[in-house]
Structure formats: structure tokens, C-alpha cells
Amino acid sequence: MTVLTILFDGVAYGMLLFVLACGLAVTMGLMNFVNLAHGAFAMAGGYACVILVNRWGLPFFSSLPLAFVSAGLIGLVLERLLYRHLYGRNHLDQVLFSIGIAFMAVTAMDYVMGSQQVFIQIPDYLRSQIDIFGIGVGRYRLMIIVICGLLTVALQLILARTRFGSRLRAAVDDPRAATGLGINVNQVFALTFAFGCGLAGLGGALGAEILGLDPYFPLKFMIYFLIVVAVGGTSTITGPFVAALLLGIGDVAGKYYVPKIGGFVIYAMMIAILLWRPNGLFGRSATR
Predict the structure, then answer these.
(1) Span 23-39, average pLDDT
(2) For 184, how many CA atoms within 13 A lie in the half-sphere containing its CB?
């Protein structure tokens, strides 16, 4: 395996981490809500895609938007029924509530789908490699980079250039003033939360081939989502994106070059970066 191949696989893994974690970055950074059940929505999207493809025979690319919608709808229902009552509570209450949701999701999925790990059946043309400048590039990982790259650009444009992005920022900065200006804050928060859950579901569907799916998915990958958000900072989407790329490349390189301790490389990187930038790579410094 060459350095360029490791770099390519690391970028693909980092892109996947970003899509899985960016919904959490949105809810934590913009809505100030600590949702540790974020991985449960990724798992829901992943299982929805697995059922659609493996059992119902739907095309893989048709199932991806359905996985997004499925996770988004589940998020919207839970936000209206449960989450919105915790917006004004402290972070400890939010952590305890959301970790309870995560454990309930693990138990429910174990009962419905069983405890065995499953992988999605991707089309044959995505299993092989293509040669780019003498480097063997996996088609599936290349597809992940393209989809996640386009998604990142679209997300940045939505938050920075659209009226909805402006309303969301206004609702977060001062909900009372935003309400006075005619912005339906509850509706904006509900749609934002559902969108973040949909992104997690899409990430779970894309990652079902590489990471696999089992009922403990939300707990196994919770720490990765939190590392991406902590290292990148929660004030922008750019921070988690850069952090996910760095951590993805570091994790893949560590597991290849130092396999005995490769699993700890991502944690060492997190500690080093947070010692250097306590508020994350793109986090705002605390003001006195």
C-alpha cells in the first residue's frame, strides 16, 4: 500500500466521519443541544438502507435518499414529542436524556433486527478498483468522496447563503428577538434537527459497507462523532470537516504503519490538538 493509497482511504474515511458527525455539529453548534443519541439516527438510516437493498431489492442509489428521509422523519417526530422540551435545560439533563434514547434504540434494534453484524449489498460495479495515475482507487470510496464533497458544499451554502440559514442563526442568537421579527423558532429548530438526523442517516447508509451495522453502532461510534466535533469546534461547519479529514487520515495511517497501537492514534491526535487549540481548530476563543 502506497502513501497515496493510504491518503486516499483516509480522505474517504474522513469524509464519511464528517457526514456522520456534521448533524451533531449542527445541533451542538447552532442549537446548543448535546444529543448523544445522534448515532441512533445514523443506525436507523443504515438499517433502512440495508432493508431496502438487501431484502426489498431496491437499487442502492435510490435507497440513499430514502435512508435520509427515514432518519429525518424519525428525528422530526422525536423532536416534536421529546427533544423540544429539553432545549431550555442544562447540558447534563440533555446528556442524560439523549444517552437514555441511545440505549433504548440499541435494545429496540437488537429485538427487531438481531445482534449480528450486517453489511449492505452494494452493486458489483462499486466493488472493484480503477487506476488513477498508477494508484488503485476503490470505486466505493471514490463515490463516498464525491457524494460527501458535494454534500459539504451544499450544507455550507444552505447555512451561509439561504434565508433559512439566516433565520436559523437569528433563532439561535436571540430566540425572543427572532420571534418578534416573525420567525417561527419552533419550526426552524424542528426542521434543523430533522435535517441533522437525516444527514446522520445518510452517513449510516453510506458507512454500512465499510463500518458494518449492528445494534451497538450508536455506542461504538459515539466517541468518534464527539471527537470530530470537539477537535473541529462547533462554531462553523468548516471545523468539523477539516477535523474529520485529519482524523480519518491519521486513523488509517496509524492502523497501517503501527497496527499494534493504531487504534490509539486518533485519541493521541485529539489530545494534541485540544492542548494546542482548547476550543477546537475553528472554535471561538472564550471571552472574558
Answers:
(1) 82
(2) 5
